[in-house]
Amino acid sequence: MRTWGKVKEGFMIRAIGMAAACVAATFGMQASADIVADFSKVEETWDVEIAPDGNSVALGCVVNARRSVCIYSLTDASAQPVIYPAPDNANIIDFYWASSDHVLMVADMVITQRFSSGLEDLRVLRGISYNPKKNKAALLMRDRQGLTNTASVSSMLEDKPNTVVMGRIFRREGARTGSRLSREDDGFIYVAFDVNLNTGESRRRKRFESSEVDIIWDRSGNVVAREIFNDQRDTYSIRNADRKTVFEVKDASIQPLYLRGMSDDETHFIAWSPGVGDIARGTWQIPVEGGELSRVTLGDWTVGDHSAILDRYTNRVVGYWYTDDLSGQKFADPTLNRFQRILSNTLPGARVVIESWTEDRSIFIVRAQKPGRPIDYYLFEPAAGELSIIGSEQPALAERDLGSILSVEYAAADGLDIPGYLTLPPGKTKADGPFPVVLMPHGGPDASDTAAFDWWAQAYAAAGYAVLQPNFRGSNRYGQAFREAGFGEFGGKMVTDTVDGYTWLVAEGIGTPGGACIAGASYGGYSALMAPLLRSAEIKCSISVNGVTDPMAQMGKHNNAGRQTESVSYWEQYIGDFYQNAERRAAITPADRVNDYRTPVLLIHGDEDTRVDFDQYQGFTAQAGNASWLTSVVMEGEDHFLFTQNARRQVLENSLAFLAEHHPAQAE
């Protein structure tokens, strides 16, 4: 059924029910309104991409409770959607159109590889090219499965619509840090391949010189820029298409920049720095013909610590992401900038993001988001003056009263202002408090929470809890000084900042006195394990999901035969000099302090997690033995990221039961 209604700027808005049609065809009746059933659901529309010619649209959909891809025709209203379900042994984590006939799926999976030290589980990314018209799929670079990543396209070729350029770095050394699974001599080699989207077969296009670590291409398959990083001589440089060196850094033990593409006006190269040496973290520009490194500005806005938006058709940077309470965009391209302004006026109160567009920019995919609400997706046709609603993240929650989310700020014990977000039980305000509190520190730790819809926090709010998600010191997007305030505080103030939030909630009359529970995943899971060791009087129970239990072992997995790498530098910054002293190491290692626990702990971990290896769980539980304070759960066949309904269901079922026992709340 199609519905119409007038909106601002003269556009029409209609519902064409794509996601609903796919879900109805797959599942039929909706599940009950139970908290676990509703909030553990995988997003029914989790991404949308328009084909280059505008004739088809691909939606991230759900098949058998797993992320899949549904493809719809925009030219034949009677055509049924073509559905590509997730492979049995993999999760689809991304997709995009590699040509007008091919959707490229990025599949995340774990494989077992034999090395001289024995069998090891490795996480790999596989590209799957799917032609919905012929219902045929091909594993990209299927003749080169010794690579850990066969999913990243470097260039879509104008004159060869069924061929893409894919570049890979071959790391020749003893430690597994590069893209190649084999282990050879020292050095980098970048090799480019032409990959056939119909067959998945590859043909070597060019083997580049030693230490050339990345190449920027144009649509004709020409080299636009080269990055050279020699980690033996500690030198880094960028060369333009004429092989002229336009930027150079000496004494660079860690790669200081990563090219993203050419600016929209073709005058500069755009690069990202993780913050190395004298180059501050964030986005930078370098003149194509050579010159000084400088920050990018759009009007009076300095891009700073924000990432680039790349146009797949031109390989040019057309804008930049930013985040305040929600993610947003600022475009350098005038056409995209104008359309975004119009769309923001058309959808008042929502943060509008242009997700993808056709090659001629006649049709756009738009997502709109409001604080604490699931994302809605639209198809935008400027010439027709129409917006078509094509899907929502969580349509089952459309009629459900969700918890309101508030931006808050409080002072840590040492006076540092800590920003964060507070989700209240549905229908409640701060004046209705106090509420039992669940603290939810984010992962990373180089990350931050926003006011976006969060299935986990909303589930706890629906159960009657006030949920505080603090952006503790060390979080990103609040400036370099705030992030660096977390350096050396991995197991210290980065943890107590979260507990200080509970103290503030009680003082404000929002939180119930007597203690809070803390729940988190990854670094947030580590924080949940450290909080009762540091502030036992205020923590009634802890829930750690895929959490780090031994930071030194986690740091060690990134150790590249003693070489300083970006990953090692990252961990050293946050952990500080703890690794130099055994007593200090033990102080921030939960697995070494199991005898200090008196607080009930729920430990949940996926046995296929390779981001925080499953042995982190095994080491902690082995040390704890049959301790009465520990409840442990293994999520079989699950990885780190809680993408599946099975993983989310296990997290919610076990943690809600655990909270009911140790920190009960009456759901309204």
**Spatial extent as radius of gyration:** 25 Å
The main pleated sheet reads as: 8 strands, mixed
Question: Approximately how much helix is present in the residues?
Answer: 10-25%
Count of DSSP strands? 40
In the predicted model, the low-confidence regions spanning at least 5 consecutive residues are: 1-17, 19-33, 173-186
Tell the overall outline. globular
Summed up, the helix count is 12
* Proportion of residues in extended strands: 35-45%
Strand order of the largest sheet: 33-34-36-35-37-38-39-40
Tell me which oligomeric state these chains represent. single chain
| Helix/strand structural class | alpha+beta
Mean pLDDT: 89
What distance separates the N and C termini? 35 Å
How do the strands and helices of this protein lay out in sequence?
Elements: E1 4-6, E2 12-15, H1 18-26, H2 35-39, E3 47-50, E4 56-63, E5 66-73, E6 82-84, E7 91-99, E8 102-115, E9 118-131, E10 136-139, E11 149-150, E12 155-156, E13 163-171, E14 188-196, E15 202-210, E16 212-217, E17 223-230, E18 235-240, E19 245-250, E20 258-263, E21 268-273, E22 282-287, E23 294-295, E24 297-298, E25 301-302, E26 308-311, E27 316-323, E28 327-331, H3 334-346, E29 351-357, E30 364-369, E31 376-381, E32 386-392, E33 405-411, E34 417-423, E35 437-439, H4 455-462, E36 466-470, H5 480-484, H6 493-507, E37 516-521, H7 523-534, E38 539-545, H8 551-556, H9 566-575, H10 582-587, E39 601-606, H11 614-624, E40 630-635, H12 645-662
Parallel strand pairs: 2-32, 9-11, 20-27, 35-36, 35-37, 37-38, 38-39, 39-40
Antiparallel strand pairs: 1-2, 3-4, 4-5, 5-6, 7-8, 8-9, 9-10, 12-13, 13-14, 14-15, 16-17, 17-18, 18-19, 20-21, 21-22, 22-23, 24-25, 26-27, 27-28, 29-30, 30-31, 31-32, 33-34, 34-36
Helix pairs in contact: 6-7
